[in-house]
Write a structure and sequence with these properties.
Layout (H helix, E strand, L loop, with lengths): L21 E3 L11 H17 L2 E5 L5 H15 L3 H4 L11 E3 L15 E5 L15 H26 L6 H5 L13 E7 L2 E3 L5 E3 L24 H9 L18 E6 L5 E6 L5 E3 L8 E2 L7 E5 L1 H6 L9 E4 L4 H4 L3 E8 L31 H6 L1
Parallel strand pairs: 1-2
Antiparallel strand pairs: 2-12, 3-4, 4-5, 5-14, 6-7, 8-13, 9-12, 9-14, 10-11, 10-13
């Protein structure tokens, strides 16, 4: 029996309105020898997409959907491990590598981000949970290499789009995932727990997992495996229940947020999602938050602050956030995503003078001075 689509199921998104550019990367060649004509074509497309929208979707990018789903399965298995086992892989000190519990990160300095994250900054197996989860290290390392290879292709296309030597950005990003602390590039596995309405009509957050498929967006039967409430983990950190009630996570219109508004500070970010999970953006020149939408198998690319500085805002950094969808069948399941944050090497000086000063439809008069170093942009 076919499920009847109700008004509650309809999500008005940039994608459904045809406002998200899509770039086909088919036949782009190998990492070592990319097809020059494809690099040139993608460069021209990126020039238009990133200047006008700050984002686009990549299809036929070479990273299989099955490989992404397996990575999310590995993350679910990690979250299901006993807390004392997970503690061995907690992110510590100045090293960004490792597991981040719900409630630790706060984009606005106050509201805890309710998500599990595992940051991959090095492919050294000893820093990955291979012993409790056989196959984790091998699969995630392979996936990280795939995202690195895709990033290297994008870096070449970006150079072409800016009329500079094709190898310019490659040389500035030569230490990605090297593990020698010379580059901040990170593959991040993310899991946002589902929202369950409790008897007091307050939102509660529990751990759970769902069966992945392209039809998953229409499924109203998530396969939950409830365990401990993430509140308990946050209470252990802070000594108090900071999630009591929902007011801190509400927007003025009553919407709830999963991840606060921010811009990424790197060169660009690649994002894969398992479903439409509430990602919203502010397009260049607009103050309106708009839902992006989900194209199965596609990877979203958005600009970061360093690329914006490098290009004198020709490619603006894209403000984005994750809200809890209003549709009950979407909010009652978890959301998985994988982000690859592409950063230049730490010693790279970021100067707009590196690039030709040929703005694309913008006026350069009276622009305020921009921060010109990686350190300054990162501290911001």
């Amino acid at each position: 029996m076919l499920k009847t689509k109700t008004n509650d199921d309809k999500v008005d998104t940039l994608l459904t309105k045809g406002l998200v550019p899509i770039i086909d990367l088919a036949h782009c060649g190998t990492e070592e020898t990319p097809v020059r004509s494809v690099v040139n074509r993608v460069g021209l497309q990126l020039q238009k997409c990133l200047n006008e929208k700050g984002l686009c979707l990549l299809v036929n990018h070479g990273i299989s959907d099955e490989k992404l789903k397996t990575a999310w399965d590995h993350l679910d298995d990690f979250v299901d491990l006993p807390s004392d086992v997970r503690e061995h892989y907690i992110r510590t000190g100045d090293d960004n590598h490792g597991y981040v519990r719900p409630g630790v990160e706060r984009f606005n300095g106050k509201t805890p981000e309710l998500r599990h994250a595992f940051n991959i900054c090095t492919l050294n197996a000893k820093n990955l949970p291979e012993e409790p989860l056989p196959g984790f290290a091998e699969h995630i390392s392979s996936l990280a290499q795939d995202f690195k290879a895709l990033s290297r292709f994008i870096l070449q296309a970006l150079a072409v789009s800016l009329d500079i030597p094709q190898s310019f950005f490659l040389e500035k990003h030569s230490h990605m995932l090297s593990g020698d602390h010379d580059n901040e590039s990170t593959l991040r596995l993310l899991y946002y727990p589902p929202i369950i309405e409790d008897t007091d009509e307050k939102n509660d957050f529990i751990k759970g997992s769902c069966i992945y498929s392209y039809q998953r967006c229409l499924s109203d039967k998530p396969d939950f495996r409830p365990e401990t409430n993430p509140r308990d983990e946050i209470n252990e950190l802070d000594g108090k229940d900071e999630l009591n009630g929902t007011t801190e996570r509400q927007l003025p219109n009553g919407e709830m947020i999963r991840c606060g508004a921010h811009t990424d500070y790197g060169t660009f970010t690649l994002l894969a999602q398992d479903s439409e999970g509430g990602l919203e953006v502010k397009l260049p020149g607009s103050e309106k938050w708009q839902r992006v939408g989900h194209l199965p198998g596609a990877i979203l690319i958005n600009c970061g602050e360093i690329l914006s500085i490098w290009t004198r805002e020709r490619y603006p950094a894209l403000p984005h956030r994750v809200v809890i969808p209003e549709q009950q069948h979407i909010r009652s399941r978890g959301r998985h995503s994988i982000a690859f944050f592409c950063h230049p090497d730490n010693l790279t000086m970021i100067s707009p003078n590196d690039l030709p000063n040929n703005e694309i439809g913008t006026d350069t008069v009276d622009k305020k001075p921009r921060k010109k170093s990686f350190k300054a942009a990162k501290e911001k």
